[in-house]
Amino acid sequence: xxxxxGSHSGRMFSDKKWIIPxxxxxxxxxxxxxxxxxGEFSYSGGEELLPLVDVISLKGQEDNSSGYFVESDLERSLxxxxxxxxxxxxxxxxxxxxxxxxxxxxxxxxxxxxPRNQYIxxxxxxxxxxxxxxxxxxxxxxxIFREVENVxxxxxxxxxxxxxxTMIACTLQAIAILLKESSEWDWFINLSAxxxxxxxxxxxxxxFSNLSRDLNFIEHTHISGWKLNQRARPIIIDPAFYLSKKSxxxxxxxxxxxxxxxxxxxxxxxxxxTRSFVEYCIWxxxxxxxxxxxxxxxxxxxxxxxxxxxxxxxxxxRHTAISHDLHYIAWDSPPKQHPISLSMKDYDKMAKxxxxxxxxxxxxxxxxDKIDKELLGRTHRFSPGAWCxxxxxxxxxxxxxxxxxxxxxxxxGAEKLHQLLQVLLSEEFISKQCL
Length: 435
Known about the structure:
There is one protein chain. Helix content is 36%, strand content 12%. The protein is built from 16 helices and 14 strands. The longest helix is centred in the first third of the chain and has 20 residues, at 19-38.
């Protein structure tokens, strides 16, 4: 018997016909595993990014968590003569729009553009293919965008319902793409075509250079009263998941019970979130963000609650939530679902708010020209910055020649933003986190 087994084994291993199918199956298995791992950050629905850019690689610096400001003396943080101890940060922007918004998106992009940052433009499925193609071609043909390679346009986009979970899905998709391309940015900022900056990027980068990399700016409050019944309890379906044309949410007659294992929070849909927090939302290593995502797929106005509920129910991040969206927004009385459109009569209040962004603005409203001239000092395509080292002789664009993107030239907007942050980071304001 022993001899028979030995001779059978010898014949089996001497026969090399098994080698080719074995290695073929091994190659397929490894390919499937790598596809699953690399696909973690890929986005659904066959979305494609125009191959416009690769991210600039600059080594980051460890986050500072010893306090809200790096400088112990707040006044020194805006003194241009003081050497900044922290590396200049990077922002990752999502600028979204719908049908007829492509030119507005480009104007907002140019107003917030800086070579250090990353940008994704999402024109939703309601926009016709021709408009999306025009936006993509405008970005691809731009000399600065082509050289720096930090602006991307989604060539195939999602249908987005503002009150439904498709907006959160689109935002998380953009964050996943940004994380896949580079992990060296510090804050994620979402804007729409109707948003506009009130300070230059040099102002923002200068102030945020001396700010703790752990702070999340997300306006939030504990949800209660009528919002519980009208937002949390209805069972809804977002048609944008299934249809190719935008329509309102479908609401059933049945209601669901309220959760007991976590508290619900609500607030502004416009956020400035740290890379570490959005990584947590994408990876969901303790499964809570995934649980919340499933819960908020059946929640009215989920963009005003998903990030808020996740951050305020997570011990690691709840103390980093600053209840402000860094926007100036004006509302009707009583407030409606959407804010009022800002006009010239709102300019003084808006300028004195010290906020770095404002919304919402009408298409090509004259107030935007006033902001360009008086707040941004914008005479050409981009808001001015130290990276623009060209000459303006003969009406030339000084930003056509790029310098060191770590050099900053903060203006009056930096001082205004600093004053706002002093209020937001005061003990009185901090004590209201996630209450």
